[in-house]
Design brief:
Low temperature requirement protein LtrA; mainly alpha; transmembrane; Low_temperature_requirement_A; two-stranded antiparallel ribbon
Length: about 400
Amino acid sequence: MPRKVAAGPVDPVRSSAVELFFDLVFIFTLGRLSATLVEEPSLLADAQAVIFLLAFWWIWYNTNLATDSLDCERPTVQVLIICVMLGSLLMSINVPDAFGDQGFVFVSAYLGIHLGRTLVMALYLRGTPAWRRPVRGIVWYLMSATIWFAGAASSGGEARALWWACALAIDYLAPVFGWPVPWLGRARANEWRLAGEHLNERYRQFIILALGETILATGNFYRLSPRDLQDTTAFLLTFWTVVFLWWTYFYRTTTSLAAKINTAVDPYRLNLRASYTHLVMVAGILLTGIGGELMLKEPDAERSAGNVVAILIGPLTFLVGRMIFEIWVFDRLTKHCLAAVVACLALSPVAAQLPPLAVGLLGAATITTVAIFDLTHRARIAGGINPVSGEDVPLRQTR
């Protein structure tokens, strides 16, 4: 049964063909981000990459909310998604040139996507209790637009990064506070009808995209390397790490996210938490790929703290994202995941004295250990779905 355009989802819904087509842009986007960091490693480049990632994620996440309420079989909705796809592609092409002479192009595409999509949503939802959602969004995007354009007009990468960071803070904090708008008030939980199955599937698909891009980038880097013993070791370590990132996500992390969203008192707020924490996990996957490329680039480089930051931080960031996800969404703390994060942090000073390949081995071993504990825990509670038992410590009573 297709989704009703103005009434939200009615049954568990699979991702549509146009959504999968839309995702193709982000393979290119993630590749541009990782290539930029490998080519120009610096604190400013890191800050710019974070801004790019936040901007692209916000487009992907809010487009999912739109497709969760709209019938993607309608030609008008498909045209909308394709227009968002084109705007995202224009933004991706201008990475990292947006901090040069293409700032207005980047900002215009970003705001055009959000305002255009939100305006279409307002037209589709008119006459329903949900029409306030997109109207509030339009008001808030117009507010942040002034900051975005001020950044585009500024000179210097540091000033532009600061302006755009403030604009992104407005975009990301608006839903946290319920998009308060005079006469419309704040968003209420009963304004949202979300399909947990659809949203859960979309998150899983993006994680696959990030993992796939990491494998493609690492494989291409290895293809261009001398392919000696050190290069081969770096390639295999990265592949090993990516495999177990996939394992820990798909065999543990989101097996009951759909049911949690469907039964939540405030499904939008729960989904927002899932989005923010998935962003951290995606960042960890990208950093893992960047670390692998740096190992291939300089497998026998001199020992330095930079090796730890570049190589070990990928798996560590992913585990932090997973741990926060489980706390925020499932109200539990997985003890072996916490232990792995603490161990990585504690071993960082020691790892700073090791060559890149040794640091990569440490990261791979850490994520593998977590996966093994996940597997043994899953075996002990076979038949349950994300139960709070054994290694999982409940933080508070779930609703």
